[in-house]
């Protein structure tokens, strides 16, 4: 896909505040987080991590955008639980943005297989991120990327449902000065 087609595809999606990812990335760099489904305990863990990182994101001059497959009401409820209701939120139930940014769908082993069970146990039972009702596509994996001037400058694409970003590494990337 060439840059013009990419830009047109991005323009089709607006956040709850009426901004596109293109517009946001022209203002300043954006940390885009692609969630799995709304009931995913690993996603809840990511949201708690993002809440804890809010000051660091501000220091790095990064906007936060969350892409999810929920309707806006469900998303607002979940994001509010982590004081993230004011971030740019993109509802993508048909996974078009996921596909545009090539966020992988996992197979069953990568999403709920035995290798995930120990991480799931630690996340749900030991850390308290209880699962909710499974969402639209339980095989969709997550991602986090830094998007600046319509270009990905750093990224983490999950290899399985328990593979969360190393935020220190991701946020340490060099973003060109504006």
Q: N-to-C SSE series? A: HHEHHEHEHHHEEH
Average pLDDT over all residues = 85
Structural class: alpha/beta
How many β-strand runs?
5
Description of the structure:
- This protein is of the alpha/beta class.
- The protein has a single domain, classed as Glutaredoxin.
- 40% of the residues lie in helices and 16% in strands.
- The protein has 9 helices and 5 strands; from the N terminus they run H-H-E-H-H-E-H-E-H-H-H-E-E-H.
- It has a 5-stranded mixed beta sheet, covered by helices on one side.
- The longest helix is centred in the C-terminal third of the chain and has 13 residues.
- 33% of the residues are buried.
- The mean pLDDT is 85.
Core attributes:
alpha/beta, Glutaredoxin, 16% strand
How would you summarize the topology of this molecule?
Layout (H helix, E strand, L loop, with lengths): L2 H9 L9 H7 L2 E5 L6 H12 L1 H6 L3 E6 L3 H10 L6 E4 L4 H5 L7 H5 L1 H13 L16 E6 L2 E7 L9 H5 L7
Parallel strand pairs: 1-2, 2-3
Antiparallel strand pairs: 1-4, 4-5
Concise summary:
The chain has 178 residues and is α/β, with parallel strands linked by helices. The chain contains nine helices and five strands; from the N terminus they run ααβααβαβαααββα. A five-stranded mixed β-sheet has the order 3-2-1-4-5, with helices on one face.
């Amino acid at each position: 896909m060439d840059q013009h087609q990419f830009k047109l595809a991005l323009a089709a999606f607006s956040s709850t505040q009426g901004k596109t990812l293109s517009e946001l990335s022209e203002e300043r760099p954006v940390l885009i987080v692609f969630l799995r489904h709304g009931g995913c305990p690993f996603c809840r863990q990511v949201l708690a991590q993002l809440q804890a990182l809010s000051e660091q994101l501000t220091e790095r001059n990064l906007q936060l955008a969350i892409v999810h497959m929920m309707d806006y009401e469900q998303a607002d409820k979940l994001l509010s639980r982590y004081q993230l209701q004011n971030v740019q939120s993109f509802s993508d139930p048909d996974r078009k943005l996921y596909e545009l940014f090539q966020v992988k769908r996992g197979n069953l082993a990568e999403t709920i297989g035995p290798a995930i069970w120990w991480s799931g146990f630690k996340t749900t039972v030991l850390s308290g991120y209880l699962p909710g009702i499974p969402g639209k596509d339980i095989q969709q994996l997550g991602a986090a990327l830094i998007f600046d001037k319509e270009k990905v400058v750093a990224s983490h694409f999950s290899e399985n449902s328990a593979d969360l970003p190393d935020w220190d590494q991701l946020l340490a990337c060099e973003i060109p000065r504006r």
